[in-house]
Amino acid sequence: MSDKLSQVLQRQKEQISQPFGEGQSEDEVVQLVGFVVSDEEYAVPILNIQEIIKPIDFTRVPSVPDYVLGVFNMRGRVTPLIDLARLFNLGTTKFNPQTRYIVLKNENKDIDSCVGFVIDRLTEAIKINKGMIDPPPETIVRDKGMIYGIGKRDDNILTILKAEALLKRDF
After folding, report:
1. Cα–Cα distance, 34 to 54 (Å, whole number)
2. Which of 34, 66, 152, 154 is the right S-S partner for 43, CB 3.0 to 4.6 Å?
3. Are the CB atoms for 140 and 147 separated by under 8 Å?
4. Tell me: the pLDDT tens digits for 25-53?
């Protein structure tokens, strides 16, 4: 791997691991992947994405919260599948040809975990300047919530989620 690529990847890992706004200038760029859940646009840092796949069969698991649809086999690894619409109390995802599973990975080297999330559709790869990201509203507990920040764009805003908060298992 080239030195330049290594530096870029290291800087992005540092951006993800630091609390909002700490040690970062406003002109730094954050790379995200945007997606839609129940007509709302969200994004997660691109470095936390293991892969994005078309829906495959999953197996239901008893005695789990209703937002956990079950588990699926991803190349020999049993991976939990979560319906983000249910998790966010936005109803239930209706599967259609644009539905995808977005598989997030944990950046912590000590923990080897992946979780799949059902999304309605992908939107785009997004590059946004750090200065265009506001902290979560004060009504949300910043440390415990799932929202990293609110990205301001020309035509809309998008909610940027904390991948590490989504990956926490409470089931």
Report:
1. 16
2. 34
3. yes
4. 556 899 999 999 999 999 999 999 999 99
The full DSSP string for 125-143 is EEEEEGGGEEPPPTTS-TT
Query: What is the residue whose two structure tokens read 């706004």?
Result: 21
User: Residue 146 corresponds to which amino acid?
Assistant: M
In this structure, how many other beta carbons lie within 10 angstroms of the beta carbon of residue 34?
20
Of all residues in the chain, the percent with pLDDT exceeding 90 is 63
Q: Which of 97, 122, 117 is nearest to 167 (CA)?
A: 117
Provide the pairing of β-strand 157-161 with 40-45.
Answer: parallel
Residues in the chain: 171
Q: What is the dihedral of CA 143, 148, 152, 158, to 10 degrees?
A: -120
Chain CA centroid to CA 72, Å: 18
Quote the tokens at residue 42: 């969200």
Per-residue pLDDT tens digits for 133-171:
999 887 665 556 899 999 998 888 999 999 988 988 776
Model confidence at 102, in pLDDT bands (50, 70, 90)? very high
Residues near 93 by beta carbon (within 8 Å), at least 6 away in sequence: 37, 38, 83, 84, 85, 86, 99, 118, 119, 120
